[in-house]
Design brief:
The complex is a heterodimer of chains A (about 300) and B (about 425). Chain A is an alpha+beta fold. Chain A folds into four domains: about 1-75; about 75-115, no CATH class; about 130-205, SH3 type barrels; about 215-300, 2-Layer Sandwich (Alpha-Beta Plaits). Helices cover about 30% and strands about 25% of the residues of chain A. Chain A is built from eight helices and ten strands. Chain A has helices at about 10-20, 30-40, 45-50, 75-85, 130-145, 230-235, 265-270, 285-300; strands at about 115, 145-155, 160-170, 175-185, 185-190, 195-205, 215-225, 240-245, 250-260, 280. In chain A, a hairpin with a 5-residue loop joins β2 and β3. In chain A, α1 packs antiparallel against α2 (about 30-40). With about 425 residues, chain B is of the alpha+beta class. Chain B folds into four domains: about 10-75; about 90-165, Winged helix-like DNA-binding domain superfamily/Winged helix DNA-binding domain (Arc Repressor Mutant, subunit A, Orthogonal Bundle), CATH 1.10.10.10; about 215-310, SH3 type barrels (Roll), CATH 2.30.30; about 325-415, 2-Layer Sandwich (Alpha-Beta Plaits), CATH 3.30.70. Helices cover about 35% and strands about 25% of the residues of chain B. Chain B has helices at about 10-25, 35-50, 90-100, 110-120, 135-145, 175-185, 190-200, 220-230, 295-310, 340-345, 375-380, 390-415, and strands spanning about 55-60, 60-65, 110, 150-155, 160-165, 205-210, 230-240, 245-260, 265-270, 275-280, 285-295, 325-330, 350-355, 360-365, 385-390. Chain B has a five-stranded antiparallel beta sheet. A four-stranded antiparallel beta sheet of chain B has the order 13-14-12-15. In chain B, β13 and β14 (about 360-365) form a beta hairpin. In chain B, α3 (about 90-100) packs across α5 and α6 packs antiparallel against α7. Chains A and B meet through α1, α4, β1, α5 and β3 of A and α1, α2, β1, α3 and α6 of B.
Chain lengths: ~300, ~425
Amino acid sequence: MIFNEIYGTYYKVVAEIIDEALNGTLNEKRLDEIVSARAFSESILTIPDALKNGTWPLIDKNMQTPIRHSPSRPLTLLQKRWLKSLLTDPRISLFAPSCAGLEDIEPLLPSDRVVYFDAYTDGDPYGSPEYIDIFRTILKALHDHRKLMIRFKGHNKQGHSWICIPYKLEYSAKDDKFRLITAHMPHVQIINLARIDSCELLDSFDADSFDIPQAEKCTIIAELTDERNALARAMLHFSDLEKETVKISDSKYKVTLTYDRGDETEILIRVLSFGPMIKVLSPQPFIDLIKERLNLQENFCC
Amino acid sequence: MAYNELIKNFGRIRDYMREFYVYGFKSRCDYDAKSARSYDNERRRIESFMGEYMDFQRTENGKIVFISVDCRSIPHNPLYKAFKAACFTNNDITLHFCILDILAGQTAMPLKEIADAINDDYLAFFEADHTIDESTIRKKLKEYENEGILESEKQGNKLYYRRADSVDTDIDSWKDALAFFSETDPLGVIGSFIIDDAGGVPEYFSFKHSYLLHALDSEILCVLADAVMHERIAEIKVRGQNSNHVNTHNVVPLKFYISTQTGRQYLCSYDLRFKRPLFFRLDLITAVTTGGRASDVEKHLAELEEFSSHIWGTSNGRFENSELEHLEMTLKIDENESYIIDRLLREKRGGRVTKVSDDIWKYEIDVFDASEMLPWIRTFTGRIAGLSCSNKNITATFYDDLEAMQEIYKEVQNDI
């Protein structure tokens, strides 16, 4: 069962408090600090009292504990079965974890029983040794804060090379692709991993001294008409974005969506997919893009 | 009953979190009087777990609370936190720490010795007179054995318990994989538990087109996954899409279909009453009970294979008639627009793409329910030279919608 207190935040926090007691450094102030920092916002009303008044007899009033070892728990069968399932996923070859301890464990859900039916079919080549090598080099660069020299082919098939600061490895399940987000000063650059021909680790950089790349944000405001279940579909479809919805009338809603400027074309076709159920109200340049498509389409209409 | 921030009934918080996250426009007064109190408590709990992701707006109907997240900017699914708030008894937490401490270092002990140690060495440490009876301890040992935390072995006529970490997994070697799969796997919440145990993982992954909501259906998915693995029949309770009416289905769970464009998850099953493959949205399944062993699973999987080659999404349309709808779309694609051809090829699913002339390409497909394709077809607006379908309603809807769009954007222009 997933919904089980053994995985809960309260158990984690109490383990940390016991650990502190074993180290002899626990006092009331420290107990409150641990709860405030690690638990939920209202846990401070529960955990310290339950420990101090003996409701949970694990810490006494002198902040001593009868527990003798630093608290730990073996992995549960559920956790092991989940790990075993990952070994059936083609993307696991990118990571090469140790399979020790999982030999006699059955998977929880093998990857061949999961179908991502609308994912694009030109996903990254996870079985390619060259791709795996590039992926692992990038992971190492991210881990060790090292710069990278990247050689890749652009859209026009022309070769390029960059020295960049790797920032994030971004994955899209829809595209089934990884992209490397880099701080290639002065701009943020994003490159599909599958386009990279080679990459090389360079010297290290001070992770605290470089500015985190920020994508430029755009906002559209649209009116949504709830016909043919459009409300439920749109709310879910756009739930990967920052959004705000206000009900205007029984069947009309005002929706505000925020997205990265680089994704404008993608957002445009996502909006178009809702047809007349979504009417963009602003900004004008985005409306113009829709009109441009409609005008082109008008040429074909009988 | 006094308010407790921990959760007893996950089903209720599942519904509220969905409302706050997906819709986010309902105020307290949109709930009836009976559920207004429940709304207050659940909102308070969700704020306690996810305060940093919650926002609110004031309208004439009152305060509206919602969860707003740019999925690209967060390394962990915040909805997992709800699974880390299960309530427990005082004995649960006491026994958890005492039993695992007593059995630390590969010590094996029978129930009686464990019970004596708990009462004499641990609880006696406190002034208050506190003991826990043997039968409660036995139940906890059994429960932890079922969870795989403890192992038992018969020695003579006694059952000895020990911790199950004799051959443990090298979690350090899994950290990067955990960081990735805990956010991309449909049961990633389990990975999130391991990350908590491991004290964190690197945060250099980010996720685009990431739909967080699936997390709330993890418990249902987990039980059904187990039924898939063990080829069990499952009785599922399914709530209506637009009503609270619940139907019961007895099914053979076969696979899970997941949309990467909405995050919606479906159970793909063989329905024992209707004797055909049926899809059920996981977010509408309220309860699952697994039963006896299913027969003919391989046969049902083969039927599903054939069936799924003619579905665009998860709708079987008028499957009873087994009538396929034939759809053809021709697109004008200029020579310098090869990226559109790439799009067609990677998004075509069961369809076929052929070049008709220098700048005209044809896409065709046979599916049970072509109406599911309309949103995708509309994404090609501006270059659809022709659209035909054996189901005339599809083309009528497409062209009517197009006309409606042209009208509404004329209005927008006039408004400006």
